[in-house]
Amino acid sequence: MTDRELLELAAKAARIGGSYCKNSGDFFANSEGCRTGYRWDPLTDDGDAFRLMVKLGIEVKRVSLSRSVGNVVQAWYNQDGKVKGSACASISCTVSGCRYSATRRAIVLAAAEIGKKL
Distance between alpha carbon 50 and the CA centroid of its chain, in Å? Predict the structure, then answer.
């Protein structure tokens, strides 16, 4: 799945409307195009990732301490997309070099899984 598809599904899960700007390739939330809304990218922006995590009730845990393997981050989320649901699942993500990037990606992957179900 491409980053663009991940962001679209994550936005769907968070009920954030928006569109991609053809010129820059950036996703703009609550917009009709490039000139309205604000740039939204939880894959690169810590604040966007944090707000997405809180809004969807995603829990994050770092499960690997080995730098040679990469950073493994696990995100727990409710499969039905409801914060108070009982069925949970997890996404594990390994990204070499940057635990911040791995954490953001795990959050977006979990949000995308929720978005698939909506």
Answer: 9
